[in-house]
Amino acid sequence: MTTGRARSRGGTDLAKYYRELLEEQAESELSMTEFAGEVGVSAATLYGWRRRLAASAQVEAGELVEVQVTDDEVGMRQRAPIVLTIDNRLRVELEAGFDAAALERLLRLLSRC
After folding, report:
1. Over the stretch 97-111, which tens digit does the pLDDT of each residue have?
2. Does residue 1 have a pLDDT over 60?
3. In a domain? residue 55
4. Cα dihedral 18, 20, 23, 27 in deg (nearest 10)
5. Residues 54 and 98 in one domain
6. Which residue has the higher pLDDT, 59 or 39?
7. How many domains would you assign to the chain?
8. Phi then psi for 7, rounded to 5 degrees?
């Protein structure tokens, strides 16, 4: 088990660390909570990384990713900019009346990176 492995400090190394932990958990006979206790992280952290890595894999594969609007006021949606954050690395802000075709081209280009 991974108990002797040092945790990475950031970036792709951190994602790789949690990807490996999640692979080990999937292969083990332990629940997420039991496994988390064994390796010294919280189950919430492992669940969060599992969700983040799954979303990242969807983006890399060119799949659609679900977007949830959190603002309940229709008027606020029309005035506030739309902010897209991808994998905590890329942030795109769109003002009201943005060019949808330009956004589509931008997203196509970013999906190749």
Report:
1. 777 788 778 777 776
2. no
3. yes
4. -120
5. no
6. 39
7. 2
8. -75, 135
Instruction: Give Cα separations from 87 to 47, 107, 111 (angstroms).
Output: 16, 14, 12
Cβ-proximal residues to 16 (8 Å cutoff; 6+ apart), any chain: 8
- Return the structure tokens found at 64: 């659609």
Asked, for residue 67, whether it belongs to a domain, the answer is no
> In 1-113, which ranges are E strands?
82-86, 90-94
Question: What residue type is assigned to position 9 of the chain?
Answer: R
Among 51, 18, 19, 47, smallest CA distance to 32 is for 47
A 10 A CB-CB count for 36 gives 19
Query: What is the radius of gyration, based on Cα positions, of the chain?
Result: 18
In a domain, 79, yes or no: yes
Which residues are within 8 A (CB) of 56 and not within 5 positions of it... i.e. 6 or more apart? Answer: 15, 87
- The verdict on residue 69 lying in a domain is no
pLDDT, tens digit, 9 for 90 and up, residues 51-90: 888 877 766 666 666 666 665 544 444 556 777 777 677 7
Which domain covers residue 86, as residue numbers?
Answer: 74-111
Closest CA to 59 of 7, 111, 15: 111
Residues 11 and 50 in one domain: yes
